Amino acid sequence: MFFFFHRMRSSQVQSNNQDFVRFERSVLSEVLAEMLPDSVFFGPDSDFIESINSYWAMQEREIVPQCIVRPRNVQELATTITILKRDYDTRTQSGGTPMLFAVRSGGHSPMPGSANTHDGIVIDLRLLNEVIPSEDNLSVNFGTGARWSDVYKALDEKGLAVAGGRNSDVGVGGLTLGGGLSFFSPRVGFVCNNILSYEIVLADGIITTASESTNPGLWRALKGGSNNFGIVTSFVARTFPSKTVWGGFLYMWGSKADQMVRAFYEYTQDNPGTYDEYAAGPLVCFTYVQKLGLSLIATYLVYTKPESWPTCFDGFGSIGRLWSTVKERSLTSATNEVASSSPPGLRQLFITTTVKNDLVTLKEAHAAYRRGVVAMRLVKGMVWTLILQPLLPVMVRKGQADSQGLAGRTESLVIILFTIVWERKTDDDLVQRTTRKVINDIDELAATQGTADPYRYLNDCASWQSPFDGYGAESKRFLQQISKVYDPDGLFQRACSGGFKLGMDGSD
């Protein structure tokens, strides 16, 4: 069943064969090319085309920038930012509109414009991808351009692990700066809660470090604050011993949905006496495949010790299934399996909300998912998925303080994520309207039930959502204050086009 499902998803992968537009070169792009002749590319150069066609989502591949800057080292990145800031100052001081730039790590976001910008400047960080475990095996330094697969392969060899992404193909930069959920989160918290220090290029081109002892306010702000303060070039994360994990998918027909929703609800109930910090997830995925007219359930279980079928997962193991891929494996293998279920080159959209763990609310979320199936039944190549994942209060209190505003939560929460892939651009409007309505329906029901929660996991938000509002007024105000300190002229608020902004501009 896994092989069939994976081949069906992979068969939809498209390539972007559009003729690239050649924009007139601005003074800014000419200056960048003069100062960094070996690191600036224009269309239709092969390096330019490779960069565009390597984005995960088709919507990002359809955006054509004026040029791409691919720094070979941190100093070249600092030079790039210095030039961008000089141009920004010239334009804004004369009342003009700043030239937009976007920053790319892995390019795995489904949100159009998150790491690309039309007729602007893209800073492609993929060459800053070195992974260096420390000699004492207590930490690892990895560049922002690395993918989690790079990190895990280097650590697997040493019997070590790090709190990182659950999909090996995702870039480390965006996920970590957006908080980051990991298979190890029940033990150590969010990915960002385990970052010991950041190297960052600020708006004035200065290269500095943020840690608990150096720029501590910036250090905390980067733990969930996204790209609002500068460009992070590398991370130092704490490591811990881990040789193998046990995990894989359980596949079953969609007719088991009621049983699976109840099993998830019972698992997520906050019971300190039965909490197992080695149990990750589960990620419960309800999927409708339009081409086949099939509803399927795929549940990903991971236990971060090599122990088969721990008792905490009994509620899932007792539900009849078609097929299972669970086994003892490396962390690289586990995250590669997740990556294989989401191939590149398709139209993509994520949208999320958060609710308290309540059976009525979870059943309504599934009912809303089913209504979405009906509304989008004619969307060609549609694969529509509802994903439930626990967010327990014990988890949000682990690790270092961050900026996400979750520390005061005392009830078990559920992060609800909808993902959809489809083939035709002409269906974009219907998909966006439907997914937005589905989330609004769930939020309205949760408000009525008293089970709503304002938190929105930044990395899964749609472009029209406001994750920083969900952090709470105090956390958002803190992030705005840090932005004013480290980017007083608002370069990353007004000129950096990707990511979610803090609701302020350079004059605030």
User: What gyration radius follows from the Cα positions, in whole Å?
Assistant: 22 Å
The overall average pLDDT, rounded, is 93
- Anisotropy-based shape: globular
The count of β-strands is 20
**Beta fraction:** 15-25%
Largest sheet: 9 strands, antiparallel
Binned, the helix content reads 25-40%
pLDDT < 50 runs, ≥5 residues: 1-15
Taking the alpha carbons of the first and last residues, their distance comes to: 55 Å
Number of helical elements = 18
Alpha-beta classification:
alpha+beta
Give a written overview of the molecule:
With 508 residues, this protein is α+β, with helices and mostly antiparallel strands. Helix content is 33%, strand content 22%. The chain has helices at residues 2-10, 27-35, 46-53, 58-61, 74-93, 148-156, 172-177, 185-188, 216-221, 257-268, 314-317, 331-340, 359-375, 393-396, 428-449, 467-470, 473-486, 491-494; strands at residues 40-41, 67-69, 101-104, 121-124, 131-133, 139-143, 160-161, 195-201, 207-211, 231-238, 240-241, 245-253, 279-289, 294-303, 323-324, 327-329, 347-356, 383-391, 413-422, 452-453. The strands form four sheets. Strands 12, 13, 14, 15, 16, 17, 18, 19 and 20 form a nine-stranded antiparallel β-sheet that branches. Strand 8 (195-201) and strand 9 form a beta hairpin. Helix 2 packs antiparallel against helix 5. The protein is globular and about 65 Å long. It starts with a helix and ends in a 14-residue tail after the last helix. The model is unreliable at 1-15 (pLDDT under 50).
